[in-house]
Amino acid sequence: MALYELTPRALVEGLRRRLKKSLGQNFLVDENITRAISREVSRFCPEKILEIGPGAGALTLALCSIGRPIHVIEKDSHCARYVREIFGTLDGFEVTEGDALEVDVPSFCRDAGERALLVSNLPYNVASQIYFRYVAEPLVGMVLMFQREVARRFTALPGSGAYGILSVIGQYHHDIETVLDVPPECFVPAPKVTSTVLRFSPRPRELPLAEEPRFFAFVHAAFSLRRKTLANSLNGFGGLDKARWAARLEALGFAPNVRAEALTRSDFLCIFRDLQSQG
Ligand code: SAM
């Protein structure tokens, strides 16, 4: 069958008997959704597209209309073989069979001139890990689908219950916008939860690269005791005890009982820069 005659449902039918729950295989069968994701991808005008977890190729099929080389990474050997059979004759189509958390990042992702974009309907169990594996690559953008609850944590603002490590570190790297919610019936088999597609546009770096790991460790420490004050959570971080943290936060103009979930990204950066400046 020619590619233009294929539909997401027909692609998924070809693999249906081989579905693996352990790999988060909920395949998209709604063409409106695959097209909407592909439209978001094309807004970034990518030169190359990296798709993680093509599965039966429903999203890959929609991405073909962008007319750019597509490289897919798929852990399941049946799916890898299936998409190779279907899309293998397309110009610039490449398949890496392996775990996206372990295989080498394709070299074109590191070459900023290539304007590579990452797109994925992510397997739920490794979704955040995959985001963090690719976050440091100089990509033109990412369009990723998460469980709605995880997506809400990425976009949450200070003071909301969903605000936490994922919000601060995600929003440090990217401007994050919600594209659309995807109900369970758009997949086969239907998952138990709603999914959400997010669009990630890179933000200018606010800290020197070498300081970022310590900043991320600082954010983790700040949220380590969610119900306690920030001074309590940071106790011991940077060699400062709780009393010295309280004094420092006060000197920077924060209330003594301030908690991590009330701080904006700029607040986190301000406290961190103060810590760095004092050695
Ligand atoms: N893109 C397809 C779609 O939208 O219909 C399939 C999405 S399905 C939610 C997730 C896909 O990721 C599956 O094909 C699964 O085999 C693959 N996968 C799971 N874990 C993976 C990993 N660590 N590395 C690469 N692929 C993975």
What's this entry about, in short?
The chain has twelve helices and nine strands.
Q: Would you count the extended β strands for me?
A: 9
The average pLDDT value, as a whole number, equals 94
Biggest sheet statistics: 7 strands, mixed
Principal-axes shape call: elongated
CATH-level-2 architecture of the largest domain? 3-Layer(aba) Sandwich
Rg (C-alpha, Å): 21 Å
Element order: H for helix, E for strand: HEHEHEHEHEHEHHEEEHHHH
Strand order of the largest sheet: 4-3-2-5-6-9-7
Q: What's the level 1 CATH class of the largest domain? A: Alpha Beta
Task: List each distinct ligand once.
Answer: S-adenosylmethionine
Per the CATH scheme, the topology name of the largest domain is Rossmann fold
How does this model look, in words?
- The chain has 279 residues and is α/β, with parallel strands linked by helices.
- The protein folds into two domains: 3-202, Vaccinia Virus protein VP39 (Rossmann fold, 3-Layer(aba) Sandwich); 209-277, Helicase, Ruva Protein, domain 3, CATH 1.10.8.
- The protein is built from twelve helices and nine strands.
- A seven-stranded mixed sheet has the order 4-3-2-5-6-9-7, sandwiched between helices.
- α6 (127-134) links the parallel β5 (116-121) and β6.
- The longest helix is centred in the N-terminal third of the chain and has 13 residues, at 31-43.
- The chain is elongated, with a radius of gyration of 21 Å.
- Bound molecules: S-adenosylmethionine (SAM).
- The site of S-adenosylmethionine (SAM) has 23 residues, from β1, α3 and β3.
